[in-house]
Specification:
By secondary structure, this protein is α+β, with helices and mostly antiparallel strands. Strands 1, 2, 3, 4 and 7 form a 5-stranded mixed sheet that branches. Helix 7 (207-238) packs antiparallel against helix 8, helix 7 (207-238) runs parallel beside helix 10 (298-328) and helix 8 packs antiparallel against helix 10. The longest helix is centred in the middle third of the chain and has 32 residues, at 207-238. The chain starts with a strand and ends with a strand. Helix content is 54%, strand content 8%. The protein is elongated and about 90 Å long.
């Protein structure tokens, strides 16, 4: 039986080479014992799951049959986790659509499709003296070669995902500055800081991830601007109520100021970042380098990006406070009782929603939910 083995383990270490060899021999012996039809076009993919613990090694594996385009294991394995909890995944063509969200490719699917069509049109120029076709093909090759070079392709510790560093483990802990200011901004800076760290890796920017991130930001800011306008109009109508207490009126004024801040900052950020999605990777790197050159790095940019949402939330809170002052400082107890009940129910629902969505575990320490390898011990 021809043994074809693929692994990312550093087999220059004799200890790793020995354990990989023993793992492969044990698995191929089980294939022979089980009578599995194993073609010469099949190969075994092996990965050490962790370092040696006690007298046992844990490793992951799967077999690939390129002829039939399928994966298989010699141990019992529940493959449903590979499909992202999507029920009814049976067709091979359906399974092929599962792709990585952290691909190192410098182009998205639409751009790659256009490049493929253009390459097919240029196939007829291969072998002929056609400088224009060679320029296009060379430019494509250069783009992919640069990506491979920046990711240390073929080297030990190469970057395999777009959010992976090749120099050292990233410190996911936030600075004291961000931890102090984040509660007052409803933890929004922490979310934006995590997003920035996933696209700004080793002072490099993946163009696909960059465009996706900027498009998401612009969409959010446009929504916050619209919501801020709604809250501003609500405050204008609220202030028209006669015989309002000074506390209610002051709270409404503060809510209006926050709403105006949301609209202004949202419009400014959208205006400044609308064209960023069309920037090249080099321009994106220049922008990120300039914006993260301060003491706190990308966290300063995360705080700036979170201000429209934070001001909108404060505007809504002060509007609710103004409404409560108006109701509970009034003379009618028949009005206060049902309003107090409604406010209590809404408050419980809001607290429940925030509590259920709150996850204090850092993103780097969260367990992976999709596994493609069968863990086994040797």
């Amino acid at each position: 039986m021809l043994q074809r083995i693929c692994t990312d383990v550093n087999i220059f270490k004799k200890e790793h080479l020995d354990v990989i060899t023993r793992c492969a021999d044990a698995l191929f012996d089980q294939v022979t014992t089980a009578g599995v039809e194993f073609s010469n076009d099949s190969e075994l993919v092996l990965e050490l799951m962790d370092d040696k613990g006690g007298d046992m090694w844990r490793f992951g594996y799967y077999f690939v049959d390129h002829t039939h385009q399928c994966l298989f294991w010699v141990h019992d394995f529940q493959a449903e986790s590979m499909f992202g909890n999507i029920k009814g995944v049976k067709s091979p063509s359906h399974i092929k659509t599962i792709t990585s969200d952290t691909s190192l490719a410098p182009f998205d699917g639409e751009e790659l499709g256009k490049m493929l069509e253009l390459t097919k049109d240029l196939e007829g120029s291969v072998g002929r003296h056609d400088p224009h076709a060679m320029v296009v093909l060379a430019r494509f090759a250069r783009m992919f070669a640069r990506t491979k070079f920046f990711s240390f392709c073929g080297q030990l510790g190469a970057r395999l995902d777009v959010d992976q560093t090749v120099y050292a483990d990233r410190d996911e802990r936030h600075s004291v500055f961000l931890r102090c200011i984040s509660p007052f901004l409803f933890r929004a800076p922490e979310i934006y800081a995590h997003g920035l760290k996933t696209i700004w890796i080793d002072k490099l920017v993946n163009h696909v991830s960059w465009k996706r991130f900027i498009a998401k930001l612009n969409s959010e800011w446009q929504e916050f601007t619209l919501y801020g306008t709604v809250v501003l109009n609500a405050n204008v109508a609220f202030l028209a109520v006669p015989n309002m207490s000074s506390a209610a009126r002051t709270s409404s004024y503060v809510s209006m100021a926050c709403s105006v801040g949301t609209v202004i900052l949202g419009l400014l950020l959208v205006r400044q970042n609308r064209s960023k999605s069309r920037d090249s990777a080099e321009e994106a790197v220049y922008f990120m380098t300039r914006m993260t050159s301060s003491m706190f790095g990308s966290e300063t940019l995360a705080v700036l990006y979170s201000t429209p949402f934070s001001l909108l939330m404060w505007g809504m809170i002060f509007f609710v406070v103004a409404f409560c002052f108006l109701v509970f400082q009034g003379p009618s107890e028949t009005t206060q009782a049902p309003v107090a009940s409604a406010v209590a129910v809404v408050g419980v629902l809001v607290f429940w929603t925030v509590w259920s969505a709150w996850d204090p575990t850092p993103a780097a320490n969260r367990p992976a939910m999709i596994h493609t390898r069968k863990a086994t011990k040797l």
